[in-house]
What does this fold into?
Amino acid sequence: MKIRAVSAPNIALIKYWGNRNEELRLPAADSLSMTLDSPTVEVSAESTSNFSVRSIHSDGSERILTERERSRLENHFLLAKKYAEKLPSSVSIEIRSNVPRGIGLASSAAVFSALAESYAAFIPNMSRKDVSILARLGSGSASRSVYGGFVAMHVGEGSEIDASYAEQLAPENHWELYDIVIAPSIEEKTTGSSEGHPLAHTSPFFEKRLRELPDRQAMCIEAIRGKNFDKLRIVAEVDCLDMHAVMKSSTPPLKYLSNETERIMREVEALRAPEHLPVLYTMDAGPTVHLICEKSALSSVSEYASRQKNCTVFETKIGSGSSLL
Ligand code: DP6
It folds into this structure.
C-alpha cells in the first residue's frame, strides 16, 4: 500500500521558539499560526523492511539528501512508531517539495505534516490530534500545518509524548487573508531552527518572553475571532520582534534578519501609513518577510513585492492544511 499526502507551510503569528524537551520537540510555550495554501510538498510512504528516502526536485531531478537530513527523517519515523506502535516496521518515503529550504518559509513544517498525514493513514481511527502529535515529532511547527485556517499549538504539561498538540481555532473560510512572501535570498541559512531552539534558554530575554506569551496568545485569538486586523498587526509584530530579540541575544547570537529584511519592514510601514492599509510583516527563522494582508490591500502589497529586485516572491493565501491524496 502506497500512501500519498500533501501539505504546505504555515506562518506563525505568535512564534514558537524554545523547547522544554528537545528530543520530543515539546515547546516551552503556546504558539499560533495561519496555514498557507502553497508552495506545497507531496510525500508518499510505503511499508518496507528497511527505511529509505528519496527527495525529488520540482523539475523531476533527484536531490541527494545530507546524512543529517536522512537521519532526521528516520529518527522521526522511529519516534512516530513510539507513539503509534501499529505503524509498519519500516517505510520507504518519497518527498517532492516546491518549498525552498532553510529560508524561513517553514519547509520542514510542510514536509513533516505531510509525512504525519501519510503515517497516520496506516492505522485506523487516528484523530487530527494524533496527526498533529506525529507531525510535532518531526518539526514543532509542523503540528500546526495539519489543520487549515488559524491554528493554536498548546504547550500542555509534562513530558509525555502526547503532551503538546495543535488545534484549529477557525477554518480557512473564516477570514480571507493573504501572505505575500518576499525572500531576499534563497540561500539556506547556516543555523536551522532545530539547532536554534536549544539556544533560546541562553537569552536574558527568554524568561520575560515566556511570561508575556499567554497574554499575547489570548490577544491574537481575540483578534482572529473578531477579524480585527489592527489588533492582529500589533500583537504579531510585537511578538515577531520579541522572538528575534531573543535570538539575537542568545549565546551564540542568531541573526536571521538581514539589511534587506529591515529595509522591507521600513518600506511596508511607509506604504501602509497614508491609507491605513491592512498589512503586517512577520519573519520566522530567516530573512524572508511575510506580508500578511486583507484583500483590500492585496493589489498594493503584490505590486510592492513585484518591484523588489533580486528577491523571490510567493503569492499565497490562507490554506486548508495537510490531507491525503
Ligand atoms: C521561527 O518548527 O522549524 O518558524 O522543530 O526544529 O523543525 P523544528 O523547529 P521549527 O521552529 C519554528 C520556528 C519559527 C517560529 C514558528 O514557526 O512558530
User: Anything to note?
Assistant: The pocket of DP6 is lined by residues 12, 15-17, 25, 31, 106, 108-109, 139-141, 193-194, 197, 284-285 (CB under 6 Å).
